[in-house]
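re: ur question from yesterday

yeah so i grabbed the chain u mentioned. its 286 aa long if i counted rite. heres the sequnce exactly as i have it in my notes:
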Amino acid sequence: MILQQTVSKEIQFSGQAIQNGKEVTMTVYPQPAGSGIIFSRSDLAGKPRVRAKAENVVSTKKSVTLGRDGWKIATIEHLMAVFHGLGIDNALVEVDGDELPSGDGSALVFAEQILEAGITTQELPRKMIHIKEPLWVEGTVFSGELPLNAMLLALPSDHLEVSFVFTSDHPVTGNQFYNFKFSTERFLKEIAPARTIAFMREVEYLRSQGLARNTDLNIAVLVGDEGYENELRFPEEIVRHKILDILGDLYLAGPIVAHLVAFRSGHTLDLEMAKKITQLQNKQEG
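ran it thru and got these structure tokens back, copy pasting raw so excuse formatting
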């Protein structure tokens, strides 16, 4: 039997948000068994809370945003991936702004500080979600103005595994593939350090839209017209980060046991799968 876990003590992270560029402080608190993952805005009256569930997502534009009653918390996916990777079931995350700090653009900073603080095993069993029959969602992504098919499948398996195909017509990145068989050790080594991608030709446009305003461009894999603008951590860092996103996005449904096969999937399609898994789980429990 696998038991639930929480962080052993209060942990604080500070830094710029990746999209709006504002300085924010995030504090992660231990929570009792059965609490789940909860996000809260400490800068708002009453410190309103929202559960990290698929039905509470209000946007998937460039990141995953939770919200309710007009307020929101954006870019939760990297921290959620760490909770997934380290087996954290219960935590309260307080943020004094509308977006989480970016760390170094990956999930590594969050993972390292949580491990340093410690993880406490609790008395209740984890409710693992075993995918017993194939599930899939399909959608469309755009390469410039060109629409492309995208798909995410969840197949029965006795362990968590993610296979991801990233495609691009950009001469620098090309197509990338990575297969990740889950263990906490492999997550920390292979997935957590992978940063998000930023095409230099898109940065100014994104900033005009209020996005990508973090002043440290090294928090992303910078793709120029003729090569990478900064040093890669892995040859296939881009697709590894896509796997990081999937692990965070699908943790909105809970700890999953399945082989996830992704073809050009992004936050929107990931959320559809999280909702489908949640509906299936509710049906099985009801």
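noticed a couple things. The domain at 129-285 is CATH 3.30.1700.10 (lpxc deacetylase, domain 1). also Residues 267-285 form the longest helix (19 residues).
anyway ttyl
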